[in-house]
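so my prof wants the structure for this chain in the tokens format not the other one, which i didnt know existed until like an hour ago. anyway here's the sequence
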Amino acid sequence: MCAMRFAPSQLVVSLSDDLNNPMKIRAKHKVAGMLLLDRDHANRLERGWNVPGAYLLLDRPNRDGRWGAYVGKATTPGLRHRVLQQLKDRAHWYRALLIRYESNDDETLNSSEAGWLEGRLYDHLAKAGQVELRNRNRPHDPTLSDDDETSLLDYLRPIESVLRLIGHTLYPSPADAPDGGGPLVNRIKPKPEANKPAPHLSPLGPAPATSPPLGPPKDVKKIIAQIKAGTYVYGGQLSR
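here's what i got, hopefully its the right format
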């Protein structure tokens, strides 16, 4: 796999040469491990993802950028089992974003931590103007110690960054946004070159910079004035 870094989101994205493999996403702080899984490839999910965690089932964004989502959690046997079950239970989603603990291979989120993360993700998306939640009720949010809550808060920003990365923005962009309303699009207008004269105008449009300006040159005006005064000399003879 090849790895790419997207700044300033501070995410490491691993893309396989095989397009059928899911996209692996890791936050730079190495706490939240994430996997973006296409529905059609859910059966290819590795058994290493059968660990506790939270997940989002994503609908495709519509023309206005709004999208639906279902927030869930998995405890035992784990995320892989739960996502395969949701293939049968829910037909609306086209992608799933899986979230687990990433720092140590021998540690995982416990049931309470997965439930707390599920509840916080629900609240976070419920406040977003672009999201329509498909959960019937708010998930149960277990009580955790202040230290545990503080550590889990680190998950929310990377998750939001991943959603933005894949085109699932949380809030609508103003019509006059400098990026044209798109989350990852920047419109760059060319700047005029310094000390470059403006092009001359003609009835047919802009003319090359080497074209003379409109109107007769000064020497032609002088000749016309001399002819009218009878003082113009042409070929050694006075023209009258």
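also thought this was worth mentioning. The helical segments are 79-89, 111-126, 146-153, 156-165, 218-229.
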